[in-house]
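RECORD TYPE: protein structure
NAME: GNAT family N-acetyltransferase/peptidase C39 family protein
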Amino acid sequence: MFHHADDELFVRPAELADLSALLSLEQACFDSDRLSRRSFRHFILDQRSDIQLLVKQRTIAGYFLVLYRRGTSLARLYSLAVLPSERKQGYAQKLLNAAEAVARQRRCVFLRLEVRFDNRAAIQLYRTQGYQDFDVKHDFYEDHSDALCMQKRVYFFDASAARPLVGYIQQSTSFTCGPASLLMAMNYFEPNQHHPYLEELEIWREATTIFMTSGHGGCGPRGLALAAYKRGFAVQVLLNQDGPLFVDSVRTQEKKSILEWVYQVELQKVEQAGISVQIQDFSLTELLRWLNDGYLVLILISTWQFDRSKAPHWVLLCDADDHFVYLNDPDVDTEQGRTAAEYQYIPVSLAVFQKAFSYGKQRLKAAVALKKHN
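PREDICTED:
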């Protein structure tokens, strides 16, 4: 919060009593894509949002709305508005600074936003304040115009390792998170050598070793390790339990027998390849040790911490520091209007990651590390 010297200009959190004033301001500022009274009420009460007002001489002259994504350290500037009569006085910049401050208070690393392509004044403001373009959302607004996506890092700390950015690959099916994560890692070490369209399903066919309760099968850690080894990478596997995995996801004895048979075949292949498979309880410490040794790490997580579903899911651990791990998640939730750029280097707090890094009643932990052979 900031205050003017004579206390006539300040920012404060919105209250339910401000609903009518907010609606009037919204109607004065926007011709379409307006927030409703119900939406404003929701955001004022919601713990995963911050809506604050610019007050000038007891009049609401502007506001900003910042939203937070469950389980991550990303903030989204959903809306920022200043009354037309109060513009060109630096108030938008003041609101933007205040929005960045609340995002920092919540330990968000990046503040992201969308802005109309033809809103040159807003784009210039954001760029002047250090925001960078990172994507385009087509047909984003009610009038079908496109949105430019921008972001700024608002929370800084020392990185534990300096490495080039790991490129992003989106999974093309609902069941190929493992192959897509593996392709991101392989293309990091061998840029542009592994084409997703050609290899994603091929790797899935090689590495699928488990049944699911419904839908297509999934890739197990040994299967992914063998696929990476076949393509010339040094691979290691960490598991906190031995035996066939995901047995509790199938109900028939026939499927359980198939899982056991596949497990025995994999054991033989892994042993023949000389791939190290360690069976032990382990934590983030071991994964960070791999990162420091030059590996990238595929990890199996439960998505419960992020979207309240209980699906097993492969993501790629790209980097970490004292506060966050950074994940490339190949599964883009397009139904929620999200884009691939939002799923690259997702900052996840260490506490949330510790909760997400296991799956199912047996608390399965699985990780596959790979790098180029020396």
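COMMENT: Residues 253-273 form the longest helix (21 residues).
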